[in-house]
């Protein structure tokens, strides 16, 4: 995967950890007396060459490199890898030695010595031998001997494990290197779905739709070369990625894949063709029936196909292609009748067995043209997949059936529910709407309305949900007391709970519970109890009862196997201020994630889970851990378009953390993207507008901040603003010198259990209004509020100290510096800046670092990393800040320590370390 090829990604995707390891080895080799050795392994096209390119392109100078590339015909040409490397070296360097290496008249020992001398003469920082599996024995021996040469360099070899056998010179090399030197192995795996999505984004300039990303991931197996070849073959301009996922293979790629069959005999070819038709995972017994081979004969054929790398053993008695595209290429060259006959045999065999996968039965029924049998299998399969939590698979299976019976209400309902659970809200809305249109009785109409109402809420269309619930209330008046009526009552209770209408939510939840108990419907009973408990925790007077009920119903839901109800119960429990230890909250969060995964509910299994982890880190006062959790969540959320609004579950949260870290540039870029994709109905509209306002404040643009505040106040009318958000908004406004009276209307919409947040915000506004004595009391109460995050309590300490200074009580103010420092020791940004300003105001010194210089805890962390030799870019990656913020930290450190270079920083840090000097 050469970085210079046209059409490839402009950035490397999914290999940041591997690149960091190699750079660390290079730095260690430069500092040591012996070379470092790294072996990069991976299948063809997985990105070994691209990783090497990124390592070399990041070096200060590329002249100190030797790169040799083997090719399939190199085995018979001695020292081919070294000669190829020297051809790319500086002209004239070791020319005589190079001639001796290439001269077959010179003895092998002398040529080896000349090769070592040539490398020493060029004195490279990095020596790379690519594709060692094709290397000649002399090049392999030279690579091993390079480890004995003195000097500070990194030796890198790349190879394909599947092509290294006992007859290959590289096989013994791997064993001998491990015995003689410390060797670092870097194994490159295929890209995950989120990395595939990121690669598509890099190549096309826009995020891919979820379905297209999944289809291309499945089609290419996460192999970046295959993915790039598909994109290149589609040409430039606006690519339709959905179409790309089903278009025929480019001829060059298909030909490359089919060429693997050239040396197969007739029986092997028959087995590989059958496997190509039978699917991704092929059971041994099914393959035996379809091919008609005896067990021993089939074992022998499969052993050879696995040895050649055409097939892999996926599990007990299951086989599949190493590359999905190879299966596709082979299947495409078969005659249609040949494919249908194989599908027919597979269908007959699977249908006769008791434990066959119904999805596989449906697939082969469709391939055999037996469409009635396919629909029957689909009906059996969708419910099975939903129970397993395989919601996307249930959706795909339902859509297979709908292609034959497009007006089937049952399958439309399954498709709508599955799409909702997996987060494909546009598809869920479309299928639910079709379900309502095709409904033939009151029960079907009720079910469709339930689905449409929930999807409307998830899509931020609150008024539409209210209208649909009104229709649902009218519809179920004509229903008898049955399961659908009970489910509709629970859905109505949920709609009122989501809108913070506690009393009607409780009334409808009790109705649903009563009917579910009477009819013996445990699934609906626990679902209704979740709505009741969630409504109770929204009422401060009944919060304790609600918490107890949610814990109870979570246990009941687990016993009944209603995983969605359990996940929602725990999520809603964790969303309220709760007197639990951090360990207990983490335990609940893990149980919530497991239940959500079993239910196949992505928004809780991914988005809510990682936001929960970030919230715990925030409460503990660890900003770096909070950022890491959200970044992990954003990666695992695939970075793909699930809806037409392009929802970014974590974007606003991440931007808020960027603002906390002082990285206004990153927050601004996220804010712009969220504002561009925000619809008039966006559920997070208030939060996105608040973010834009916050960014304007921190950028010092008071006019833009004032305009954004007006828009925010209009959007917030009648909507809740949570306490932490309100504190952020008021803090930002005061920083931008917006008048306190302009900010007070925001607090009118404070929602949730916000007493201590309200106290803190009131103290901030009162201080800004120049009433320090009144503000001091509020700050002191906030200082002691355990439900406020550590950094926020640190800010309360700073505010209290400022008020004490204003009241002339400087000694009392100084006494608050140490506890504020402890609370903010793992934080950054404006909170730490306010503490620094207070120290300056009081003339207080921080803990010294190296003599009489003063570094904040964050600056001390940066200084230690500088001492390790990290660049600004590396600092930014390590600390999850922007390079600009890293540069500011470095500048401050140099200034405070009174030094002019990073080396001097390292000397000062070293001299200040315990036990030195």
TrEMBL record:
Q: Does the keyword ATP-binding apply?
A: yes
Q: Name one GO biological process term.
A: regulation of DNA-templated transcription
Q: Name one GO molecular function term.
A: DNA binding
Q: What are the GO cellular component annotations?
A: cytoplasm
| Transmembrane segments annotated in the record for this chain | none
Q: Which residues form the HTH luxR-type domain?
A: 848-913
Q: Write the record's keywords in alphabetical order, separated by commas.
A: ATP-binding, Nucleotide-binding
The record, for CDD domains, names: LuxR_C_like
Q: What is this protein called?
A: LuxR family transcriptional regulator
Which species is the source of this protein?
A: Virgisporangium aurantiacum
């Amino acid at each position: 995967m050469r970085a210079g090829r046209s059409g490839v990604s402009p950035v490397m995707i999914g290999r940041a950890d591997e690149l960091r390891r190699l750079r660390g080895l290079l730095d260690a080799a430069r500092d040591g007396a012996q070379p470092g050795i790294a072996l990069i392994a991976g299948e063809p096209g997985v990105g070994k060459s691209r990783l090497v390119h990124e390592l070399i392109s990041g070096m200060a100078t590329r002249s100190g490199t030797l790169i040799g590339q083997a090719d399939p015909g190199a085995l018979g040409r001695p020292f081919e890898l070294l000669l190829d490397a020297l051809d790319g070296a500086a002209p004239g360097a070791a020319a005589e030695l190079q001639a001796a290496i290439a001269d077959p008249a010179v003895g092998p020992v002398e040529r080896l010595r000349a090769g070592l001398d040539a490398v020493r003469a060029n004195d490279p920082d990095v020596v790379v031998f690519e594709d060692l599996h094709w290397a000649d024995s002399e090049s392999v021996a030279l690579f091993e001997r390079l480890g004995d040469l003195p000097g500070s360099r990194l030796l890198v070899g790349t190879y394909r494990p599947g092509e290294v056998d006992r007859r290959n010179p590289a096989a013994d090399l791997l064993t001998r290197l491990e015995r003689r030197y410390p060797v670092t192995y870097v194994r490159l795996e295929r890209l995950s779905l989120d990395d595939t999505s990121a690669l598509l984004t890099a190549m096309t300039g826009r995020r891919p739709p979820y379905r297209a990303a999944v289809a291309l991931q499945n089609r290419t197996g996460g192999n970046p070369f295959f993915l790039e070849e598909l994109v290149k073959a589609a040409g430039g301009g606006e690519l339709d990625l959905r179409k790309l996922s089903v278009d025929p293979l480019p001829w060059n790629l298909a030909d490359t894949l089919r060429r693997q069959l050239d040396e197969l005999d007739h029986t092997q070819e028959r087995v590989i063709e059958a496997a190509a038709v039978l699917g991704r995972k092929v059971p041994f017994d099914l393959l035996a029936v379809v091919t008609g081979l005896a067990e021993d004969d089939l074992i022998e054929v499969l052993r050879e196909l696995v040895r050649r790398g055409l097939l892999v053993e996926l599990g007990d008695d299951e086989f599949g292609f190493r590359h999905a595209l190879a299966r596709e290429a082979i299947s495409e060259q078969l005659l249609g009748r040949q494919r249908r006959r194989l599908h027919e045999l597979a269908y007959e065999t699977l249908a006769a067995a008791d434990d066959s996968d119904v999805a596989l039965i449906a697939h082969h029924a469709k391939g055999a043209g037996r469409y009635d049998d396919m629909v029957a299998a689909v009906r059996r399969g969708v419910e099975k997949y939903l129970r397993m939590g395989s919601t996307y698979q249930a959706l795909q299976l339902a859509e297979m059936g709908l292609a034959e019976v497009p007006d089937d209400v049952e399958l439309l309902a399954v498709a709508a529910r599955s799409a909702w659970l997996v987060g494909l809200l546009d598809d869920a809305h479309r299928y639910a709407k079709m379900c309502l249109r095709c409904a033939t009785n009151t029960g079907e109409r009720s079910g469709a309305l339930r689905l449409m109402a929930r999807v409307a809420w998830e899509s931020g269309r609150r008024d539409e949900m209210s209208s649909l619930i009104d229709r649902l209330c009218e519809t179920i008046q004509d229903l008898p007391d049955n399961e659908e009526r009970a489910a509709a009552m629970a859905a109505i209770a949920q709609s009122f709970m989501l809108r913070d209408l506690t009393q009607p939510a409780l009334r409808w939840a009790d109705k649903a519970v009563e009917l579910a108990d009477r009819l013996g419907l445990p699934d609906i009973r626990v679902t209704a109890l979740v709505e009741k408990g969630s409504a109770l925790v929204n009422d401060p007077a009944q919060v304790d009862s609600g918490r107890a009920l949610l814990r109870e119903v979570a246990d009941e839901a687990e016993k009944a196997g209603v995983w969605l109800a359990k996940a929602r119960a725990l999520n809603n429990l964790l969303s309220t201020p709760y007197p639990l230890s951090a360990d207990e909250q983490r335990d609940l969060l893990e149980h919530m994630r497991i239940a959500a995964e079993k239910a196949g509910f992505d928004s809780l299994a991914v988005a809510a889970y990682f936001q929960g982890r970030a919230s715990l880190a925030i409460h503990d006062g660890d900003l770096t851990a909070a950022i890491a959790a959200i970044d992990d969540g954003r990666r695992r959320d695939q970075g793909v378009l699930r809806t037409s609004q392009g929802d970014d579950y974590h974007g606003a949260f991440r931007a808020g953390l960027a603002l906390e870290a002082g990285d206004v540039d990153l927050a601004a870029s996220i804010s712009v993207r969220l504002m561009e994709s925000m619809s008039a109905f966006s559920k997070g509209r208030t939060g996105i507008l608040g973010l834009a306002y916050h960014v304007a404040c921190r950028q010092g643009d008071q006019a833009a901040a004032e305009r954004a505040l007006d828009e925010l106040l209009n959007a917030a009318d009648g909507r809740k603003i949570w306490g932490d958000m309100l504190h952020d908004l008021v803090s930002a406004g005061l920083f931008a010198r917006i008048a306190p009276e302009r900010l007070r209307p925001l607090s009118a919409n404070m929602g949730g259990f916000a007493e201590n947040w309200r106290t803190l915000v009131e103290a901030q506004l009162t201080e800004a209004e120049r009433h320090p004595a009144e503000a001091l009391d509020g700050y002191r109460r906030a200082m002691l509020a355990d439900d406020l995050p550590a950094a926020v309590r640190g800010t309360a300490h700073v505010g209290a100290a400022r008020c004490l200074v204003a009241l002339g009580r400087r000694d009392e103010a100084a006494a608050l510096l140490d506890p504020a420092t402890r609370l903010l020791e793992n934080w950054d940004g404006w909170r730490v800046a306010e503490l620094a300003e207070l120290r300056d105001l009081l003339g207080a010194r921080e803990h010294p670092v190296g003599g009489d210089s003063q570094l904040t805890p964050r600056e001390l962390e940066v200084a230690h990393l500088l001492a390790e030799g990290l660049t600004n870019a590396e600092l930014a990656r390590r600390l999850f800040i922007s390079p600009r913020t890293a540069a500011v930290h470095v500048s401050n450190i140099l200034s405070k320590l009174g030094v002019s270079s990073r080396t001097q920083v390292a000397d000062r840090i070293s001299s200040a370390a315990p036990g030195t000097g």
